[in-house]
Amino acid sequence: MADKLSEDEIALYDRQIRLWGLAAQTSMRSAKVLLVNLGSIGTEVAKNVVLSGVGHITVLDSHVVTEQDLGSQFFVGEDDVGKLRVEAAAPRLQDMNPRVELGFEHDEEKDESFYQGFNLIIATELNFKDRLRLNDISRKNNIPIYFAGSNGLFAYAFVDLISFDAVDEKPNNGFSSPELGQISRNREIISVVPRVEEDDKKIDVITTRNNYKTINEVMQRASLDGILTKKQIKKVSNVLPLTLAQLKCENPINSNEFSQQLSITCKQLDIEESTLKYNYIEEFKKQQGVEFAPVASVIGGAVSQDVINILGKSQSPLNNFIVFDGITLDMPIFEF
């Protein structure tokens, strides 16, 4: 690809360029993204990322289309049942933006070398072992990764960008500039550069370094101690301990394993297990692995927007664990 956008591309992405700038759009055009699995969330992410103008996207999915897929995603139809998802979705996905280079893989047995050619990985519908393996590979090869999944009305997204420097510009209205140093558990300001615009408007160009943990570190060590007060912890969404407990399970549908991990997770988070609502626990158990298109739209949209932000280097990224509660419509972000 050329270093500069063509006139046709500038016209096509005009609204986006006005939002985040020509440099950001050019940066996105040079990116190579791997999307693992085209379930409900994967479909939503694929749509958004393809339309954004990312240069190359490879979809890796070994699943075949089932009747359940028909109600949770929009790249497949009744005639596609029994076909590989990637084969069914390929023409529809390419039609959305012919300028994006697309690749499709259905052999899930990939060695580490396969992943080394990507700038970013987005993975959905993975089991316990596959999540850990893929995060290990992404860390070893310095590749940012997102994980996302849903359980009926509930969903989550996990972000591991390893280390990411975000540059923000903020007006300085006569107040002192931000000080260098730690501003939260995983973030620190490493640079503040003042700038004066042509109209004498003063701007602070602030570089914030975001440090991340692996999904295994978060599962084993995530704690609300030092993040929230005791009063705030009592109001934390039940979806947080339920989701973390499920992610720890090698076999989440095993009721005994799930209950055991839920108890461990509540103690780890400093949440009293007795405060969890019975109906939330029961609904979560019933809906494990179920996909709802509206929920996928919300969590897939959040992941897609963050991917676009970091590829275009236009805004600070999410850091690092998000849960969505489809009952209350809350979507809190936890920095573990």
Describe this structure in words.
This protein has 336 residues and is α/β, with parallel strands linked by helices. Helix content is 39%, strand content 21%. The chain has 14 helices and 12 strands. The protein has helices at 7-12, 14-20, 22-29, 40-52, 67-70, 85-96, 112-115, 128-140, 215-221, 230-233, 239-248, 255-269, 278-286, 293-312, and strands spanning 32-36, 56-60, 101-105, 120-124, 145-151, 154-160, 163-171, 181-182, 187-196, 202-211, 321-325, 333-334. The protein has an 8-stranded mixed beta sheet with strand order 3-2-1-4-5-6-11-12, sandwiched between helices. Strands 7-10-9-8 form a 4-stranded antiparallel beta sheet, with no helix packed on it. Helix 4 runs parallel beside helix 14 (293-312) and helix 11 (239-248) packs across helix 12 (255-269).
Can you tag this structure with a few keywords?
336 residues; eight-stranded mixed β-sheet; ThiF/MoeB/HesA; 39% helix; 14 helices; DNA damage tolerance protein RHC31; Ubiquitin-activating_enz; single chain; alpha/beta; four-stranded antiparallel β-sheet; ThiF_NAD_FAD-bd
